[in-house]
Each structure stands twice: as structure tokens, then as C-alpha cells.
């Protein structure tokens, strides 16, 4: 049943199987499966659609993510003896034992998946994933598929918004693992924020499983763990070319510190010895990767001076220090001060390497503070984002749903008294109405937003894209979207056209009708509108079933 | 190294190992560990404290959760060859190869954990977990421990607030898996919302791993998948006593439906045949567990009538129908209408079972709507809560931090220019100042909130409580807290007293000083206040280190 799969793919599949066992679902999936099985309906062909009802974060779009995980989950979907025994203990005692044998033999060999490609721009009410297969099986998949798409799409969309707020050039680093909603919340966040536009993650497991570039140097605890220069060991460092004997790096740095204090008119009495010891130890361990956090005590009175001294000593030995991290206070103002000192040192001490030092800023960055940061003058090269990115504080859930649209070829519909909870019946084709740039809206150019078949009768039919490809896809997909829909606040709402799947493209040029039951951004084709009306009228043809007996 | 562990415990430990591999951490833990190792400091005894800075949800308290997972994680903490090979590929190329051998041999045999018990009421700035051990090891544990405590405590506290809002009697059902932040977000939520006061979960895996009672019957898709009574099979059902031959259950129900329509003056033309077929099929499959969702079309015109008919037919055969679920609209008003119909049926048809039918309400319940629901007249017996509970929409992250407080017996402190980010140095004892009820605050009764040793040099020393025990602990711990601190809105802030750990209880009766650096709810003992001032003044003694050379 498995398509060819590389080593990395196997590690991902194993990790997913461990994190998403088939019992990680709602109990009612099993009670319903039993009722279908009991009445002999479990093999009836059925179709579910997965979609969300509103674009997240008050925005004008979302990104679709989680497809690859869904396919991995479906490939290995089956219940073990242990699973089935547990189900036996929680389902009502009169459940027919043969049902558990049926469960034990179940897999997704009858399941076909059509989907929007991973990383595509999507909109509210658009069917993202279409799941077709035996009624009992596709019902059983509901919770797992929702769980895999909901958060992945949400956090990917959130990352895209942070990317839009930050502009295309600044490097973005995700570091939310410790604040995520559970361990896998952290792993999922690292993966899909990278897809949504982040460059780096602090999460090692995300690097291991998904090949995302990882970054990080030191925390405040490292700095505060040092107390005096006596703790620095070894105290020597060899020059990068290795030609000379190792020099006394502590003395070399102390000399530079005196020069730096003179240059900046700083009081040496306020410099923290423990901080200098920490920087020295780190630089001696990793002379090519020196990027300390400089605000454990005071940036201006201690951290920046200590950094410059160690970095100048490294330069003297031929190494290139990398930069600094600021983790508190007014990042913009501090970055300007820090850059000024770097320029001064570069000029005064003739050290060109000081012109390419980078400044990393991390301090509880939200979408709003990213927007503000981008407006203000600053010298921050890399922004690290944690809590607000990974937990999506602005809206922590996307609210995807999974609705039955067809059984045995007949369209199905939920007609709730709550209009928001009603569904559009039948399988659908979805189109985005794209304007040719500069043309009038009324001569809108029609282009299809294709859903492709990704799994046919349990076989994965479409090669998966790499993380880098999908990441690129996100940015190119966002490129096709007009800025008015991408505005982070009060975007225009995008009109999605929904048509029955049997129609070909030309049919979509028939007028679209806005359906009172649904949100206004969805335009239904005329035939689909008729179908909705007919199903709403209900079992009019069959309404005599009571008297018929 | 492992203490005795039952089967369930093993399943939990395995699950945790799979969900929280040791690479699920920030890269800088490894770069710091290397720098410590390189300078020979990796074995120095160090102490970290884990705490949060503000009570979540604008509330007056939090609950501490995640301890058991932390202990399971620590018991099995080690790096595989594969892990180490990956680390070799991401750490700088000049990393000494012997460091990777050191990592390969690492475990938590030198780690000691003192902690507040799982499920205890706690407050901002209180050290919840104290982690003591070799500097490099306890540093490496940071991200994993934070990740395990942060969300567990947050979602447990959220559940406790929902429980306070709902009152003690109403049953609460968690059903957030599909909307959670990733699969494990869902699993963690099910576990800790149960601990925080929920009775049931829909999540089967949570039942499997943690023994939480699971519940669920059917979704709308089940109802809408049926179209006509012809799909009902088998059409017969035997009476509960099994004495008679199976009867034609469809005809029996149709008869009852006619009676119900007559009684209520309802139009039979508006009744959905598919919905009746769905209810019949379910009742025939699970006659003892009949609890359908009745708003797939219209509660008043169809769902309620169909339910009553099937339930009356079940009663005639000696079964006890369970109740109904409402999933949209005004739950309070509908529950009153539904209860009225149940009473009428009970009386008119002399069916006492109709007096004990339960009404389940599920419709995007938030803390606010739970408060409102509790104020309004209603007949809802069980409330199902999903999105707002598990994703903690009001505040999706707790913001726990892990700070170094001691190295080689010397207190350490971070003195940021941002006062909120400064820490209280040294190991601490924490006390809650409890009033004797009715007495004046000035004669406050002092009682210690004990932290216990849970792991000594890598060995688990304290037997874990069962889920039920911890759940009870939460409620009894909340009982000790005065209502003014438990108010969901604008609670009073609780004063926490922090003392150096060397002092005995009597010493805490020395005056407490409020420290400008910290939030005002924390009162420091006089000696601790001196220590803070001294460390803030900094390396005054050592400040000549520059000139000393």
C-alpha cells in the first residue's frame, strides 16, 4: 500500500504514527461506525468535505497546511489488538463482537483524497480536502484529519501574517516550543511556521524530522551562571590560521575592554565580571559562532562593552564574531545604539568585521509589535518570535469542520436552524475569480484553483513536495493574491465561486447566486442554488412516509 | 533507575517518550551545554526554579499540573546514537567529538526534583518546580520541562474556571480534540481538563492512556447520511427481557410518532424521514444508549418528535432511552421547551423514564457563555465544551519560565533593565498566609505550602497519585482558597511570601518587604531583600577585575 518513501519520510511517518494513534479520536466515531456496520451501510460510498467557516485573525485569507500529515496518517491507519480490546471495554456491552473483527481488519484501501495543494492560499467555505470512501471508514477519519489540518493551517497562516508584517527581507526565527500547547503543538508550530515564511527555528526535533534550519546560542542562565574570570577555562585560544601558539585570550580581551571603555567613555566599575566570563567561555568554545545575549544585566553599562571586547579579541585572532541578541526593553532604540557602537568600533579600531555583525531581537513579539517594529527606525536583522506566533493568541483555533456531502451518489446537506451551521450539499468544484490586472472587475478572468487527487483507493498518487518547495509555494501563492485581500487589518473579502463538480469550466460562467443560508463571500452556481432550495424544502416527495404505512 | 510502575504507567511512559523525544528542545541548550562541558563546569551543582509571572486569564490563581509527565520524561531521558549523530550535524563543526560521547552517556541520575504537588492551587512568581543537579544536565532539561508544565497548568486552570462558572453539579464534557493545537495538544487537554474539573471526554486515547471516562453517541453526519426508512436494517428489535419475538420496531415507532404529533399538535409533513431512519438505526444498534443529536434539521418540527417516538417505542420494549443533544441555537430556551415536552409525554403516556432523560448542550461554549448559561433558567444536564476550553482562547499561553537561582551553593540572579524579567535569587521556601476564617487579616494564620521531593538523584521517591486522586486534590485545594481570590473577574490578588530555604518556619514571621523589582504580590523576607539588593549592586567586590590584571 505504501508508495516509495525515503528515510526522512519514514522518520516522519513513524513520528506521526506515534503522535496520532488511531484511538486519538472522538468516541462517537466508533458508535456511529457500529450503527452503520450493524445496518449494513458501512460500505456505502460516501464523500466528506473539510473546510473552515471564517478566515482566521480577521484576515482576508488563510493557508492550507497539514495535507502531508493526513496522507501519512491514512497510509498507516489501522487498529491493533490492544486498540480493539480497549474499544471493547468502552463501547456498550451489547456491541456485536463481529464488529471488533471488522475494526481489526480496517484500513484506508478504499479511501480517495482530492485536495488543494499544501501551502495554497484558501478562503472560508472552500472545500479544502475531499475524502471519499466507505461510509464507516471516512466517518472514522473525521477527528484525526480535522486535528491535523486545523492547527497546521492556522499556525501557517499566522506565520504568513508575521512575514507580511515583517517585510520580505528581515530574517524570522521561531522559538515558541516552551510556550506551545503541548509538545506536539511545539513541533507542529515549528514545521508550519517555517512553511508560512519563517527562516529558522530553535526546535532541534523540527530540524531532525523536517530539515528546518535550527539556530540558537545562549540563554541568560548561561550568563548568570558565571561569577568571575577564574571560571574561564581554558583561558587560551589559538588564532584561526593555527600558525601561532594559543594566546592568553582572557588578557587579550581585558586589554580590548579597556580600549572600548575609553572609546565609549564607559565606567569599568559597572561591568559585570560574570558576564565577561560567560562571553569569554563561549567564545573560546565556539570562536566562529559568537552571538551572546547582552541584556542579562545592562546593555549599555555591561553587555555591549563585554561583547565588543571579546569580539575585538576574536577579530585580532582572525575569527568573525556573529552578533548579539537583545531580549528585553525597547528593541528598536537599543538596536540603533548597538549599531552605532559597532560602527564606531569598526572605524576606530579598523575592524571591518564589525560592519557585518547582526542584531537579533526577541521580546514577546506579537503581530502588532512586528508591525510597529517595521514602521520604526531600527537595526534588527533577525526577529525571534515565540508565544504569539505558536499559540496564535489573536485566534487560537481555526474551526475547520468535516461535513458529509454525498452518500451513494446522492447529495447530503445539514439544514440547521443556525444558518452558519448549514452546509452546501454535493461535491463541488471551486474557482477563484481573478481579475486581469488593471481590467474592470466585470470582465473578470476565470482561472481554476485545482484540487488534485492525492490518494486513490489508499495509494498515494502524488509525490510530496519538499519543505522548501512548499515554503516557496506559499510565497508564490500569496503573490497571486491582490494586496487588498492581504491587508492585515480590514481586508476586502474575496468572492469564492462554488459549482457542482459535474459541470465543466464553461458552466461557471452562468450567473452566481448568493445563498441566504451561507456567508456572503460564497457565490453558488444557479444549479447548486436550486439543489440547496430543494433539499431545504426537505423530504417533500417522501413526506407521506408516516401515512404510507 | 525506575521505581515500580504498573502497566498503565508503562503505557503512559511509552507514549510520553514518543511524544517528547529529548531532541524536542531548543538548540541553545546544546551550545550552552557544550560551553559548560568545554570549560569543565558541566558537573557543577546548580539549581533552576520554574515559575510563571502572572496568573492566567486575569484570574487570582492557577493550578499546577504536568509534574507526573516531567518525572516520566526525566526517568527515561537519554540520547540515542541517531540523536547524537543529528546533533553532530547541527552543532558547529569545531565541536570537540568527545562532547558527543558525553551526551551519549547522559541521564538524569544526578537530578533531584522538589515540587508543589500536582493539582495544587498556586500563584504568580511562586517556584513550582525546583530542579537541582549537574549544571549541563539541568540546563538541557529547560525547554522540555517548560513545555510539559506550561500548557498542562494553563488548560487545567482553564477547566477549573469553567467548573467554577458551571457550578458543582452540572456534568462537564470535554470535546476539543479536533480544534486543539496539534494532536498532542488534544491529548494533553483531555487529561488536564479532567484534572481541573471536567467529568468526561470524547477523546478515546485519553481514556486508553489515563482512564478518563469517555462519552459520545452521534454527529450530524450520521443523521444526514440517512434518507429514508428503507435504509433501516434490521427493522426489528427484541424486548429487553428477551421473552418475546423481536417486534417490527419501525412500525412500532411510526405508531408512537402519530401519537406524539397528535399530543403536540405537530405537522407530520415537516418531519424528516432520514432523521427518523437515523434514530431508528441507532436505537436498534444501541437500545440502551439512545442519545441522538436532534437539531440536524429542526428541533421543534422534526428532531424532538422523532426522538420522542423512538424513545417511547424503546420504553414499550423495556429499554431506558438516555436523552438528547442540542448543538445549535439558544440552548437554554430549547432545553426548557424540550424538558416541557418530556414532562408532557411522561404524563400523557405514563412513561416515568421520560422524567429522567438528560439534555446535553454543545455549541461553542466559552467561559462567558457558561457564566450566562448558569444565570439563565435552563434544563441542560451536561455541557460539552471544545474550542474555548482546549485552546484557552482567553489566554493561550501561561508563560512559565525556568531560571537559574544557584550554582555551587551561590545564589544567582538575572537583573534585567526590564523589572518584570528580573528574578529572585537563591533557593526559596514559599508560604501561603491563610486567614483563620472570620478572623482579622492582621492575625493571619501561617501555614506552609509544602514542596516535596519527587525525585532524588534520578530516583522517583514519591508514589504518583491516580487521576481521580489528583482531580479531587484540585477541588480540595480550591476549597482552601477564599472566594475573593477565586472570582473569575477582578479577583483580589493573593500575597505570596518568599523566604530563603535555609530559614525555618518561625523565621517567616519576620516582616516581609515588598521588592520594587518584582510584582507586588510577592513579599520577600528581610534577609532575601538584602540579598537582592546586594546582587543588584553587582560585582562591587569584584569590580576591580579589570585593573587587577
UniProtKB/TrEMBL annotation, chains A, B:
Q: What is its EC number?
A: 6.3.4.21
Gene3D superfamilies (alphabetical): Aldolase class I, nicotinate phosphoribosyltransferase
Co-factor requirement: Mg(2+); Mn(2+)
GO cellular-component term (any): cytosol
GO MF annotation, one: transferase activity
Q: Is the Metal-binding keyword given for this protein?
A: yes
**What are the recorded Gene Ontology BP terms?**
NAD+ biosynthetic process via the salvage pathway
What region holds the Nicotinate phosphoribosyltransferase N-terminal domain? 23-150
UniProt catalytic activity: 5-phospho-alpha-D-ribose 1-diphosphate + nicotinate + ATP + H2O = nicotinate beta-D-ribonucleotide + ADP + phosphate + diphosphate
Protein modification: Transiently phosphorylated on a His residue during the reaction cycle. Phosphorylation strongly increases the affinity for substrates and increases the rate of nicotinate D-ribonucleotide production. Dephosphorylation regenerates the low-affinity form of the enzyme, leading to product release.
Q: Which Pfam families match?
A: NAPRTase_C, NAPRTase_N
Which keywords belong to this entry?
Answer: Ligase, Magnesium, Manganese, Metal-binding, Phosphoprotein, Pyridine nucleotide biosynthesis, Transferase
User: What InterPro entries does the entry give?
Assistant: Aldolase_TIM, NAPRTase_C, NAPRTase_N, Nic_PRibTrfase-Fam, Nic_PRibTrfase_pncB, Nicotinate_pribotase-like_C
Residue span, Nicotinate phosphoribosyltransferase C-terminal domain: 452-500
Main EC class the enzyme belongs to: ligase
Q: In which pathway does it act?
A: Cofactor biosynthesis; NAD(+) biosynthesis; nicotinate D-ribonucleotide from nicotinate: step 1/1
Instruction: Return the similarity comment.
Output: Belongs to the NAPRTase family.
Record function comment: Catalyzes the first step in the biosynthesis of NAD from nicotinic acid, the ATP-dependent synthesis of beta-nicotinate D-ribonucleotide from nicotinate and 5-phospho-D-ribose 1-phosphate. Helps prevent cellular oxidative stress via its role in NAD biosynthesis.
Stored NCBIfam families: NAPRTase_put
Return the protein name. Answer: Nicotinate phosphoribosyltransferase
> What is the scientific name of the source organism?
Anabas testudineus
Gene that encodes the chain? NAPRT
